[in-house]
Design a protein that fits this description.
Layout: E1 2-3, H1 9-14, E2 17-20, E3 32-35, E4 42-45, H2 51-60, E5 65-69, H3 74-80, E6 89-93, E7 98-101, E8 104-106, H4 112-129, E9 135-139, E10 145-149, H5 154-163, E11 167-171, E12 175-180, H6 185-196, E13 203-207, H7 213-218, E14 220-223, E15 233-234, H8 243-258
Parallel strand pairs: 1-15, 2-5, 2-13, 5-6, 13-14, 14-15
Antiparallel strand pairs: 3-4, 6-7, 7-8, 9-10, 10-12, 11-12
Length: 259
Amino acid sequence: MKNIKEITQEELDDLKVVVFDLDGVVIPVGTELKENQDGTELHIKSHQLSAGFINNLEKLKKHLKIGFSSGRNILYLKSLVNEIFDKRIILQAENGNITFLGGKINHPIYPDEYFGQLRDIKEKIKEMMKSDQRIRGFEPKLFILTVHCDEMEEIPNLVKEVAGDKLYCLWTNEGYDIGSVEMSKGEAIKNLAKELGIKPKQIMTTGNNYNDQEMLEVGKGVTVKPKRMAAEYFIEHKKEELGGELLAEFLLDYFKSRD
């Protein structure tokens, strides 16, 4: 891996899009979620983008399209960027299952069997919640299942039992994302490149966790956590800093110097 400072002028000039992961990249990690057992009450507390980052994105989108790729739901992503939302902002939610681009939402078509498997897994986890305090509840999603809980082998084992190898079960630091192995953030970046008529490597991607690996490989990858996730480039940052914010500053400084 190379430091982002080693990226060439030719590579930077070739970029058309930069896509940021959220948690641990442009917002601090840490979502509070608590759901009661019958699902009638749900409390969620999360973070917002900093004012400085929003200001830098407003300037940066004069040079690049700005994207966000997350396991989070599309409504949350939209709420994060309301201040700067326009046709140059791209949202990819639920680990690539939903893409908001050019005023339209695109998503894969899944068979009834897929949704049935997610339903069965959720019902079994809800049964576990009755006696297991490690499970806190479910984040609202359309195409994937996200359970907030401690790291526990019972849930990956349950997914394997219900669906075999057809579903992934990825640890997110706050719980597990469960979804189809046929869709990922990487596949969403490939689809985005086709829609825009560009090459995947003209999309700079950032990430720090396991659901980002394919996206980092498909695009011009920049990892903000090189000890966990490999990519072509990495960005150095202190513990109290967010790597995605520093990357935006780096790109903005380059484009300013070019003007």
